[in-house]
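Morning. Coffee machine broken again, so started the prediction first thing and wrote up yesterday's gels while waiting. Chain of 283 residues, entered below exactly as on the submission form.
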Amino acid sequence: MNYRHAYHAANFADVVKHIVLLALIKSMQRKDKGFLALDCFSGIGVYDLHSTFAGRSPEYLDGIVKLWDYAKNNQLDELTSDFLNLLAQISDNNQRYYPGSPFIIAKTLREQDRAVFNELHPEDFPTLKENIIEFRRGCSCRKWQFENSDGYQTLKSKLPPTEKRGLVFIDPPFEKPNEYDLIIDGLAEGLKRFSSGVFAVWLAIKDEKQLGHYLNKLREFQKEVLYLEFTLRDSKGKSGLTKMGISIINPPYNIEQMIKPALLTLKKALKFDEYTNFELKTL
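Came back before lunch.
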């Protein structure tokens, strides 16, 4: 367990990922009935961009900082505007702190909704609890549960939800060479227990062959899958993560139309060179 997300917080992949997460929550809340939000790899929930961790590799400069700068002089789509308003609640408009998925979930869930935040890292888990509980004020949802276990194990232990509706957010660290296989096995377990659930998986795309194998395995589930791919820059000769993906199994109705305007905004705001682009398609 060497991975610490604080080194990469607020980079371009985080910004795209968290805007999609916000869209998924909003889509789930079109119905009054409550749902479970299961966050399998939570991290610490809130990240200080002035910290030593963030300063070692300031990836946020190509991520949220570009979006903040773009927003000063350009009109935003509704989803991106809502996302930045959410960030302002934690940063108090000083643009220092960046929320992880637990904060976004905690701030947006309703009284009838429920959340489970899971983090395996022995140092990050207590920090996660402290960060999220500190921001409990102003949150409508009070039904939070914290778990300190393997993220894929929660797909067995926490499903199916009593609410019979759920959003499962899988954001693994990709520190293991067989991470794609672990995801597929986890999804198989989760879908076996909760076939109607919405499963959103973030992907660090470093090997196109592994990605192709993963997408083919997704098709074998015979479920509707919406797939998003966002490339920040030409990968040739560049270091660091340059391409990410998100696969959504059982995507909520009309989610594609909800996300696309935000992706168009991000393409302009995060632009690095002519290779910055996105693809959104149904598998």
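The longest strand covers residues 198-204. Going to sketch it on the whiteboard this afternoon.
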